[in-house]
């Protein structure tokens, strides 16, 4: 039979497929012996690697130990912010309509934008680039009147996969023409994306508001714990500042 693709093309496709699988499937497939044990117990790494699609909106109550954060230790907080109500909303297009009722009186939004997805399309609509979809969604979240006072926290997430893709030679400008001739390395890409998200936030915000930007790899549990601590302190500080105004 006549070969349709050269070896080089097949290798490229497999490499790209492997990079996409490294989201989670690759991790679990490499560890089948451990996972197939009868007495298997998931490790922290297994938990953060699991792909668990959120349907609808999930509510969590989180209690913080006051003495554990710098801001509480300084005695600024008292009891404020001891218990937080956190809503995890499903991100796919088909479930976004369910978000609106939860936007009322929200203090902060944590928005995860997967930056490694610059060369991928939406499962729900194969015409739409996933990063472009994040820009559009960020635009509408920032412009929502109900969220006008909310602090906006953006995680430029999946930096590990971004680096792997760039190291394998995938060019950002091929998929995101506005990237132009900037260097094809992670720092330059993150700087460009941060500016792009920040510009959207400024254009869309009905009032001046607090915003925070983090480059994250949330499966790196140690680094993520430090980021979450910083986020927790900022949210509490903004809450106290707002409370002071009234
Ligand atoms: N390599 C890598 N994988 C990540 C990172 N962040 C998330 N993932 C993986 O991405 C997958 C998706 O995570 P989920 O929490 O299931 O997805 P979600 O973004 O909440 O999606 P919905 O619930 O459908 O809105 C999981 O397998 C995670 O392990 C990251 O920074 N790096
Ligand atoms: Mg989810």
TrEMBL record:
Signal peptide: none annotated. GTP binds at residues 23-24, 157-160. One of its GO terms (molecular function) is GTPase activity. Gene3D superfamilies: GI Alpha 1, domain 2-like, P-loop containing nucleotide triphosphate hydrolases. Keywords: GTP-binding, Magnesium, Metal-binding, Nucleotide-binding, Transducer. It holds the Pfam family G-alpha. One of its GO terms (cellular component) is cytoplasm. Mg(2+) binds at residue 54. It comes from the Eukaryota. GO terms for biological process: adenylate cyclase-modulating G protein-coupled receptor signaling pathway. PANTHER family: GTP-BINDING PROTEIN ALPHA SUBUNIT, GUANINE NUCLEOTIDE-BINDING PROTEIN SUBUNIT ALPHA HOMOLOG. This is Uncharacterized protein. The lineage of its organism: Eukaryota, Fungi, Dikarya, Basidiomycota, Agaricomycotina.
């Amino acid at each position: 039979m006549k070969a349709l693709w050269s070896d080089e093309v097949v290798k490229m496709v497999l490499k790209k497929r492997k990079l996409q699988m490294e989201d989670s499937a690759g991790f679990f497939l490499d560890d089948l012996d451990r996972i197939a044990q009868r007495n298997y117990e998931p490790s922290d790494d297994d938990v953060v690697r699991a792909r668990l699609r959120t349907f609808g909106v999930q509510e969590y109550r989180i209690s913080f130990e006051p003495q554990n954060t710098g801001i509480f230790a300084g005695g600024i907080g008292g009891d404020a912010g001891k218990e937080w109500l956190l809503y995890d909303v499903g991100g796919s297009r088909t479930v976004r309509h369910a978000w609106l009722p939860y936007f009322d009186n929200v203090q902060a939004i944590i928005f995860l934008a997967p930056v490694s997805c610059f060369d991928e399309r939406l499962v729900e609509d194969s015409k739409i680039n996933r990063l472009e979809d994040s820009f559009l969604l960020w635009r509408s979240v920032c412009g929502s009147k109900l969220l006008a006072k909310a602090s906006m926290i953006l995680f430029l997430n999946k930096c590990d996969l971004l680096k792997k893709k760039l190291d394998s030679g995938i060019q950002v400008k091929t998929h995101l023409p506005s990237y132009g001739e900037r260097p094809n390395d992670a720092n330059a890409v993150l700087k460009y994306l941060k500016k792009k998200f920040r510009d959207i936030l400024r254009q869309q915000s009905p009032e001046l508001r607090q915003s925070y930007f983090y480059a994250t790899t949330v499966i790196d549990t140690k680094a993520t714990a430090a980021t979450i601590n910083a986020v927790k302190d900022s949210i509490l500080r903004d809450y106290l500042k707002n409370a002071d105004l009234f």
